[in-house]
Amino acid sequence: MMHFTNHSYFSLFDSERALLEHIYDVNATFSYSAITQPSPLRRSQGMSSENWSEYLLQSRNLSRLSDLGARTTRLHVGSKDIVYQGLMQLPETRHDLSENSKVCVDAWETGGLLPTVCIYISVHGEFEEVRRGVQESVRKSFDRTFIIAPAPQGSVAAVNGYPCLIISDQLTLRGYNGSAGWKPDLNVTVTPSLAAAAAGVATALKSVPIATGAPQIFPVSSHTSVTSPHVDALSPEQQALVQELQRVTGLNVETALQCLLASGWDASKSMALVQEYRAQLPASAWQ
């Protein structure tokens, strides 16, 4: 996956976009959306928005584009249309992915799209526009989501040495906003509603056993039981805390219960546990 993002795709996007035709599926889709408002970073520096004229002709920003015909024509379908009518119409770029602090990549398996398992890739970063004869570099931020699948044996992608095909590609362009947004936050944030729900849980509730059918993920102290009734048997305060933890984290009800039980119904500790064990949580732990 990292080879796909770092060495294959963006390298060709910057240098030889025509060769990307081999990587897109014949039924793949691509669109991009330009967010033209000044970024928070630029606003904080008293700067206005950049020049977006080269992007607006095909931008598929649905919050501004209401015409059905324009929405349809700006969605590129098929490898040739994507590359020649989409990608090659964008300004030349230079992506420097060598600095880990300037790029954030998330990926996970997803099913239900094709008979085979696909991988969803989300990339956040920045690039420079390459403008001939212009000394000052222009930086922009971007978010890009790919859905990729294994390249079938004998396919154009496989013949050209690519192990995967792009099924879907969505690009969002925005004014340069730096990379502080994905730096780790060492201070776990507890929302006011989560704190209020936690405050209503009495100390006695810590010993109330909770039943879950999911495999135990979070560490539970030896004096705590996990063989209790259904969530409906919880007190209103406990149910409120479970629901708020679900809303904030995206956990399903059983995993949220496990987390709260392991933390002794402490909101801050529950949030910290989610962060600590996030990488170990299976897909079934989420809503």
UniProtKB/TrEMBL annotation:
Listed InterPro entries: NTF2-like_dom_sf, NTF2_dom, Nuclear_transport_factor_2_euk, NXF_fam, TAP_C_dom, UBA-like_sf
An individual GO BP term: poly(A)+ mRNA export from nucleus
Pfam families: NXF_NTF2, TAP_C
SUPFAM superfamilies noted in UniProt: NTF2-like, UBA-like
Compartments where found: Nucleus
The NTF2 domain, residue ranges: 7-173
Main location: nucleus
Limits of the TAP-C domain: 236-287
Keyword Nucleus found: yes
Top-rank taxon, per record: Eukaryota
CC annotations in GO: nucleus
Keyword DNA repair in record: no
GO molecular function terms attached to this record: RNA binding
Keywords (A to Z) from UniProt: Leucine-rich repeat, Nucleus, Repeat
Record protein name field: UBA domain-containing protein
